Amino acid sequence: MVNRLFILMATALLLVTQLASAHQQKSSISTVLFNPRTQNIEVMHRFRVHDAEHAVKQIFGKDADILDSKETQTQFSQYVDQRFSLFDNQQKPLPLKVVGYEIEGQFFWVYQETKQPAKLENLSIQHDALRDLWPEQVNTINVEGKGDLQTLTFTDSVELIKVEFNSH
Fold this sequence. Notes:
Layout: H1 2-23, E1 27-35, E2 40-48, H2 49-60, H3 70-82, E3 84-87, E4 97-104, E5 107-115, E6 122-127, E7 138-144, E8 150-154, E9 161-164
Parallel strand pairs: 1-7
Antiparallel strand pairs: 1-2, 2-5, 3-6, 4-5, 6-9, 7-8
């Protein structure tokens, strides 16, 4: 009886631990899209609401509320904007601006854009959002619309990644 109770409790504890760790993913996915129609570079960041919820309480205080406060949502979008940068061939920053944000299901989206430089052979990208809070945060970026799809992953101490574009 004691062994059965112990196994039952151990199993329950394991399930709770798995559920708790499954909740916070500590990962984001972004798309850097070269839009031929608008001649803009459009950036779309997707964070899990649960991660953003934990982050805003650490960054902005215990009263921060990503779900119900427009002020917190604006603050979080500005936080992302300050920690994401694009650099041209000469390593000059491209002037990104936040054009919106929204909650869609379990995701918090932040949208940015900038004009596409006339001649762009490569692009360097920095994406530190949430990595200042959690070293295990993984930020993945898909670069689309300028040659082949390229996927970049920011982990550990990676701070800047350069992508080269084919000149067809």
